[in-house]
Amino acid sequence: MSSGDGVFGYRHSIATAQLVLFFIALCLGIYFKLSHRNGWFCIGMFSIFRVVGAGCMLGTITNDASSVWAGVFVCESFGMALIVFLLLEFMSRANNAVPTVHPRWFWYPQVITWADIGLAIGGFASASKTDSLSPTKYTQASFGLFTGLYLIVVFTFWQFWRVRPTFPRDEKLVLRCVGVSLPLLAIRTAYSLIYQITGDQTWNAVKGNPTPYLVMTFLPELAIIFLCIGEILLVRPPPREEKDKRNMRERLRGYAMIGSDQASRENQADQTRLQASV
């Protein structure tokens, strides 16, 4: 194992902020799971990727092994699809309230994402065997797929936005969140695409210039995640879950009524037997 230079630099400061803030987001994702709200999986998993990536970045201070750098590299690129799925989850909620698009527009991204995962694994295997984190055929194909995925999401969102007045209040809020998040995600996507196209190390998310990374990656991602968290807190749990809870309450009331009716019949029977004995 090779040792790092032991210097805590600008990029490590960003990693420390990621570690703290995305740990908070992870805790909120767990809270959303327990309270049966939208977005808990995507927020939680994305936060795990960023926490692990930040931990690997801080680990490079004392360990300069290529596998540690590769861990940072993969965590930086692997979580972006989760943001897309978070936005799609919001639009799916709106589609459940007012059917607007065919369900296949939520299936296409899943197929693309599975292909992207395979390419990301190939990129990790390639990056872990070399000290270079330059673009590879795997990473270029991966970000090409992600760009296509982003365009599908933009098109799907446009279908919803043009009929936005027809949605209930909560669905309007989540669509607003998607509308604000998409330009931020475009900035994040542009950062990665510039590097994949040019190979300029300035735009390398791992060893490049920290300032473009801060402005075009960390801040947009942080804004999207906490914007979505804010919207989730503002809206009610998904209608389907509310319906399940309502059905459960109705069943419980039904059991109570059945129990009370049975007790009433037993009381009447006792009174009848008492009258007959008299």
UniProtKB/TrEMBL annotation:
<dbReference type="Pfam" id="PF24800">
    <property type="entry name" value="DUF7702"/>
</dbReference>
<dbReference type="InterPro" id="IPR056119">
    <property type="entry name" value="DUF7702"/>
</dbReference>
<keyword id="KW-0812">Transmembrane</keyword>
<feature type="transmembrane region" description="Helical">
    <location>
        <begin position="111"/>
        <end position="128"/>
    </location>
</feature>
<feature type="domain" description="DUF7702">
    <location>
        <begin position="9"/>
        <end position="230"/>
    </location>
</feature>
<keyword id="KW-0472">Membrane</keyword>
<feature type="transmembrane region" description="Helical">
    <location>
        <begin position="140"/>
        <end position="161"/>
    </location>
</feature>
<keyword id="KW-1133">Transmembrane helix</keyword>
<feature type="transmembrane region" description="Helical">
    <location>
        <begin position="214"/>
        <end position="235"/>
    </location>
</feature>
<feature type="transmembrane region" description="Helical">
    <location>
        <begin position="173"/>
        <end position="194"/>
    </location>
</feature>
<feature type="transmembrane region" description="Helical">
    <location>
        <begin position="39"/>
        <end position="62"/>
    </location>
</feature>
<protein>
    <recommendedName>
        <fullName>DUF7702 domain-containing protein</fullName>
    </recommendedName>
</protein>
<feature type="region of interest" description="Disordered">
    <location>
        <begin position="258"/>
        <end position="278"/>
    </location>
</feature>
<feature type="transmembrane region" description="Helical">
    <location>
        <begin position="68"/>
        <end position="90"/>
    </location>
</feature>
<feature type="transmembrane region" description="Helical">
    <location>
        <begin position="12"/>
        <end position="32"/>
    </location>
</feature>
<feature type="compositionally biased region" description="Polar residues">
    <location>
        <begin position="269"/>
        <end position="278"/>
    </location>
</feature>
